[in-house]
Design brief:
The chain has about 325 residues and is an all-alpha fold. The protein is built from 18 helices and no strands. The chain is globular, with a radius of gyration of 19 Å.
Length: about 325
């Protein structure tokens, strides 16, 4: 998954601070664990760039786009040569644009494009930034600077450093053109090239699900998890099963294993794992268990409105 829970997003944190605030590794760890209430409490009164970047990411994870953008803009203003800050601000603009009304969405999306491009300009070797930029080019219409030729140019650059990710970009472009045979071929090439292919198997599962090939999607999920994989792939697998409407007991098992793994990461924070577990329990008709998971999510991230609304439905 890209942007919010992407299977390729593992950021390297640069811990260079002049005060104890965000320099404290414990604060960074809280973000990885998804304990957003504690992150916000620790960082709210700090104004250094790294604190603001971390705070923007906490708000981003909770889908509080305005707060995320506000903090992200301040981080960029303080350290305009830091590519990571531009990349995160681009993501924040992108998600805000997706939820905005049509009158303002285009302008916000252009800001996202500018920030993605600036991140690549500042760090041309960043596969992560180029991959995100390619996703923008693939999804955005030409009037907002999108274009598949541009996405493929990014794939060519990414291929110099990461062949698997380049194939993933080409798969997305082919799928956008509805050339599904070519897209599937590119996904499988990504799997073959990857040192750790589990994430790309899950991307293939998503591709199958979106094509209505739910049986193939489930097989791809199962194949992903027999590969060596990071704990976060359990979260991704559970999410795929939930969205496919299949095998909810396995989705529950995967999420419980992830939460117990000791390998929680920012791309799949604990509060979102509890929320997803609540959604799965709801589908299974287990309302009491669902409510408990939504409460667990809010205990970690009280500003997460999805969980609050879901809990309200059950009370």
């Amino acid at each position: 998954m890209k942007f919010l829970y992407s299977t390729v997003f593992f950021l390297v944190l640069l811990l260079v601070f002049t005060t104890i605030c965000a320099a404290d590794p414990a604060v960074v760890r809280l973000l990885s664990l998804g304990r957003m209430n504690e992150v916000i409490s620790a960082l709210t009164n700090h104004s250094d760039a790294e604190s603001l970047n971390l705070l923007s990411r906490a708000y981003y994870a909770m889908e509080r786009w305005d707060d995320a953008v506000r903090c992200g803009e301040r981080a960029v203003a303080l350290r305009p040569q830091e590519a990571r800050y531009h990349l995160w601000l681009a993501r924040e603009y992108g998600r805000k644009a997706a939820d905005a009304n049509p009158l303002s969405a285009a302008g916000i999306a252009r800001k996202a494009k500018n920030e993605f491009e600036r991140a690549v300009e500042l760090d041309p070797a960043s596969v992560e930034a180029r991959s995100d930029l390619s996703q923008y080019y693939t999804e955005a219409p030409a009037i907002m600077g999108g274009g598949l030729a541009k996405a493929r140019e990014q794939a060519a650059e990414v291929g110099k450093r990461n062949a698997a990710e380049a194939h993933w970009i080409l798969a997305q472009a082919a799928a956008k053109e509805k050339n599904y045979d070519e897209a599937e071929r590119q996904f499988r090439s990504a799997i073959q090239e990857a040192r750790s292919p589990a994430g790309y198997w899950l991307q293939l599962a998503e591709f199958y699900r979106l094509r209505g090939r739910t049986g193939d999607a489930q097989k791809a999920v199962e194949t992903a998890l027999v590969q060596p994989h990071e704990p976060a792939r359990l979260f991704d697998a559970a999410n795929e099963l939930y969205l496919s409407g299949r095998d909810f007991p396995d989705a529950v098992q995967y999420l419980q294993r992830y939460l117990d793994s000791g390998g929680l990461v920012e791309e799949a924070p604990a509060f979102r794992a509890h929320y997803l577990l609540g959604q799965v329990y709801e589908k299974m008709g287990r309302s009491s268990a669902a409510a408990s998971e939504y409460q667990a999510s809010l205990a970690l991230a009280s500003g997460f409105e999805r969980a609050r609304k879901a809990l309200g439905r059950l009370q």
